[in-house]
Design goal:
342 residues; mainly alpha; two-stranded antiparallel sheet; 67% helix
Length: 342
Amino acid sequence: MTPDTSLGAGVSVDTIGAVDGHRRRGQLQVVVGATLFAANASVSKVVLDAGIEPARLTALRCMGAAVVLGLFLAVTQPSRLRVAWRDLPTLAVLGLAGAALIQWLYFVAIDRLPVGIALLLEFTGPLLIALYTRVVLRHAVARQVWLALAIALAGLAMVAEVWRDAGLDPVGVAAGLAAAACLATFYLLGQHTVERRDPLNLAFWMFAFAAAFWSVLQPWWNFDAAVLAERTSLLGRLDGVDVPVWLALAWVVVLGTLAPYAFEVAALRYIPATTTGIIGMIEPVVAAAVAWVWLEQVLGATQLAGGALVLVGVGLVQLARTPAAAPVPPPLPDPAADALVG
């Protein structure tokens, strides 16, 4: 006799299993993406120390990612570069909010505020996502998600040690909150867009628009490319090791920009933007750990405890489940689209 795997309301054990599998896949993709972003913070420090200004580094990141991904798709599957005219406005907003503006706003914030406070302001993005989902979209947000968000934000405040300096510049605060809005926009709009687009096509056009934006603000004829041939120290524990600036920049472009964005965009097909944002909050914790090991930026007991709290919050949201009444599996992934995102 064939066992009855139905749980009522037309929901089978196989269906729930498929949803759980997609959910775990999305969670893993966010973790990998956030880890790559976190490691990139220390690599970017190396590039900045070589004399490349933050705005120029942002322009190089966006242009490099667009060129590398564009060439990859042009050689492998040129048809995946196609885009409908009606999609261009959405892709332009994603490129500006998710790549071009968020980095610049963060640089403005850290220039006017303590780094910890600027970081905390930017990572209120997941809270904005949850509020938008509940208030505007009127979708239910599980209590466990709110709890996870509160715990993670508290932990992040401890990692940043925001109480050490209370001097709050209004422009810096506005920039930090604007960066949070850009982060929320990237996750929310990205989730909506990736439902009907190839993630790599989406990433390419996002970077292409970001590169065009920065080409206007940072004209390429003002950039002295000779600096890329110079050598720079890896700093910290690797201070005695020198590498070409172009090699460190290649890491920033490929492993610090293109790959993590691809992972996080792909994850939006499997898990909600709220969940993606909360899991992504491990980024500053991992970045602090990498800086501790590599750049010898020692973490105190409070910061370590805060990092543990962030991980607890992330763990809680990973355990949160969509109500079993009507789990709907996401669209089947395009195997080719997953070639770069695991």
